[in-house]
Structures are given as structure tokens and as C-alpha cells.
Amino acid sequence: MKTYRIALVPGDGIGKEVVPAGRRVLETVAEVESDCAFAFEEFPWGADFYRRHGVMMPDDGLEAFKAKHAILFGSAGDPAIPDHVTLWGLRLKICQGLDQYANVRPARILPGIDAPLKRCRAEDLDWIIVRENTEGEYSGAGGRVHTGFPTEVATEVAILTRAGVERIQRYAFRLAASRPRKRLTVVTKSNAQRHAMVMWDEIAREVARDFPDVAWDKEMVDAMTARMVNRPASLDTIVATNLHADILSDLAAALAGSLGIGPTANINPERVYPSMFEPIHGSAFDIMGKGIANPIGTFWSAVLMLEHLGEAEAARRVMRAIEQVTANPRLHTRDLGGPATTGEVTDAVCAQMRAAAKSPLTAA
Ligand code: NAD
Ligand code: MN
Question: Ligand 2: distance of its center to the CA of 280 in Å?
């Protein structure tokens, strides 16, 4: 019997609604899988913590994560606190502090989802976006001088390191090689950004030599948005810088049906530190506290967590239950045009897992 120590960080906004829902799904995994259990510890960090202590999480907070197998995260962001304070104080602090340099975001049109592209069949959109997660445009380098004066100057410096670029490209090529289509698109902007992005392209060419069975191509980020809409089937695995992939992955989630569905894995591939799993969305101020947040993005993130932990069968079980639930439009939340609440979707996914465990026909 394996017991996985899981840190829960609901954070703010709808994170406080979807992370408890994710916990219930994992508890149901433990119920139906005889050889796998979870020991949860919840960390009440985020905007409320900030209001009491002036920081989003304790300075030595990352230490507590080092004994965990994985982290399930909700969202950082509060209407009363500047977004850069909440994001840097919690999510970026964890991702950068635990060297989770590969941010991995699958996008697929799940059964029953009415996706917005008319000519796109479900099999045309099956992508996995790899986002560089520790540097680039989010390196935090820069500053402001003459603050508040008409002469004010502000810089935001993107930093790409050879080591940082090579490890994310290598991760993406390896992932592409493991997928049936063995196809990678490297997103760039090396026509306008003539230093760091040119190095990014050069390193892609170098790494590609080690993966002769991967068919790869290069696409400018602006053209990439059009290609995602017009020729979705031409894409499979995608690698991009921190900012580019951040934007493209919200587009991918929307094209797959809703921001409420997209999952994320923040991976430390060397497993020196625990990895963190979270829905792609943020705090969703407009719907927080209403009980209507779509929890599927968090459930799918839990699937990625189970895969990372080596629990492939449990991961398949949860994914099957998710797909059985999305197939029923009465179980869609409002973002998908349906009437269901977060609680109803969660109940339904847990019930599917229990039913599948009892029935030898569906428990493949
Ligand atoms: P958002 O993802 O919170 O919301 C964008 C839109 O999508 C909203 O209309 C929202 O209602 C909808 N939406 C998002 N998730 C949904 C779900 N699960 N179910 C139903 N509808 C959903 O993005 P935003 O409005 O740009 O950001 C709000 C706050 O969240 C900001 O403070 C931002 O910095 C923060 N944020 C945090 C993270 C993170 O911690 N990983 C990511 C993105 C945004
Ligand atoms: Mn984002």
C-alpha cells in the first residue's frame, strides 16, 4: 500500500471551490484502488494570509513541500490586491522555487463538449503545450526609475539562458517522441526579437539532432494563433516560452470548450522537488463564491498528478469518469452552457468511479 503525501493549496477565488472538489475525487480514488492512499495537508496561503501577515505564504514555506509527493494548487488572485503581488507571492514563488521548469498543458475536446470551432472534429484537436516555466519574460528582471514623474522609465527584461532553453526543448522533444504522431512545433518570434529568440531557435535545431524520429517545425507566435484556429490537426506537441505559451494555452483551452476544463502540470522532471498540479484558470472573480465553477480542469490536473506518481490505472479511471460526466450536458456547468453546480459535477464524477469499480464490464 502506497500512501502519497499531497499538499493542498486552494489559494484564492474559485481555487477554494475546485481544490476541495479535487480532494474528493482523490479520496474516491483511494476508496476504489486497494493499494493507493493519500495523506493530505492543507496550506491556507493566499490573499487571506496576506491580509493577516503581509505575505502570500511564509518565507520558509517551500520547506514544508519538500517532504510531499505532489502539490494540488487552485489559484492566486484577489480583487483587492494587485495581481502581480498575488501571482509572484504564491504561484511563481512555488514554481520557480521548486524548479518546476516544465509547465505541461494538454488540450482535447472531451466527449459531450460543444467546442467553438465549426470545422474542428474532436480528433483534430489533441495538443500538449510545453511552457518554459522558470525564466523568459517572467524572469522578474527589470525595474522602475523616476517613479511617478513624467520621466518615469520601466523595463521588463526577458532572460533566456542556454541551460534553461535547452532543458525545456529537450523535455518537449522527448514528450513529442513519446506520442503517437511524434510531431513538435517550436513557437518563436525570432524575426522581431533578434537576440534571445534567435538563440531559442538555434538550440531547437541542436536538440532536434538527438531526436531524428520527431518531425518538427517552427512557427511565429502570431501565425501560431491563426494556425490553431484554421489548421488544428497540423499540431500535436508544442513548445514555447513562458509568456507565449501562457497565452497560447488559454486559447487552446477555449478552443477545446472552456477555460474551466484545461489542466496543468508544473513538473520538476529530475524529481528533486515535488511537482505541482493546477487548473489552467485563475480566481474567476465574476463567479467566485457561487458554487458554479467548473471543477473539470482540477480533476484533469489530478489525472496528470496520478500519472506523474506512476498510478497509471488510477489516472485512467479518473479520466474515464470525467469523460462519462462531460458526455452528459445536464452535468455541464454554466461556462459550458449547462445548469450543473460544482458539487453536482463532483458527485457525478465520484459516483462514476464507484460504479465502474463495481462493474467488471466497465472496469477495464
Ligand atoms: P480567470 O481564469 O480567473 O477568468 C477568466 C474567465 O474565465 C472568467 O470569466 C471566469 O469566470 C472564467 N472561468 C475561469 N475558470 C473557470 C471555471 N473553472 N469555471 C467557469 N468559468 C471559469 O482569469 P482572469 O480573470 O484573467 O484572472 C482573475 C485573477 O486570477 C487575477 O488575479 C489573475 O492574476 C489570477 N490568475 C491566477 C492564475 C494562477 O494562479 N495560476 C492564473 C490565471 C489568473
Ligand atoms: Mn495563464
Answer: 6
